[in-house]
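Form 7-S
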Amino acid sequence: MEIKKEKDLEEKEQETQKPKLLDQVREMIRVKHYSIRTEESYIQWIKRYIIYHKKKHPQDMGEKEIGEFLSYLANECKVTSSTQNQALSAILFLYQKVLGKGLGSVAMERAKAEKKLPLVFTEKEVSLILGYLTGVEWLMASLLYGSGLRLMECVRLRVKDVDMEKRQITVREGKGNKDRITLLPEKLIEPLKKHLEYVKAIHKLDLREGFGEVYLPYALERKYPNANKEWCWQYIFPAKHRAKDPRSEKIRRHHKEEKSLQRAVSQAIRNSGINKPGSCHTLRHSFATHLLEAGYDIRTIQELLGHEDVNTTMIYTHVLNRGVRGIYSPLDKISH
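Output:
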């Protein structure tokens, strides 16, 4: 039913001479250099917003209709505050950037984020989980924990981003579109070298078969026409098969699908018998917490994680294995 409504919406827009509304949204998102994931997410939220109001054109709606939709998400769909805020961001983008329509106080009416302590694995638990992983999934999960990478930062790594001599990784366009440098564990250098030999062989085969291009950000592809075939720009964790790029429609080898690693890590957690609802991101939380336990200062960890505000990093002091805020009780210091 939902798919039929979406098709009806697009068919109705085709009747006008102007570009379809959703095409206008896509075009503006690409002008702003937003990621393909953001594009997909915004398009879906805008569709849901329009369909909820019985396919009424957004130009004829405003703050009242936006408020009703957000209320529906919170009260009937029971979405989290972050999901509700994502929906609001998509709708505000539609009105402000595409339709050029100002909105008043609704722009400030964001749901209050829940304050939750991060789930963390112990060092023993991390070892158990990694022990149930093999091959490329083991290497990727080891980078999440050993370098503190986010999932998408890991799958988007390119050959040029890893400096084995300096034992560091440059994270490009991380959260907030910011670059940062984090560490490369000594233990992963040799496995990574062997993996890259395999990836290079795949790239050479692609080139021989007339392919070998990779997506380049911004206007680099136009500025350097042959750079997309160069080894340094290739993904470290390429997809198993070549596929059509959703934007350029060129046949390329994109990066590995993140869901494959998510499934592998989830299975490893179950196999290890750990009774925690962990995920790939829990390995990043564990990286930060274990560095704090080892005595590294909070500012250094903030830089490695790419947090804009040190208060975001401070949350890991609440989950140290030394109790609340890492503070020892005075009772533990008196002799019996």
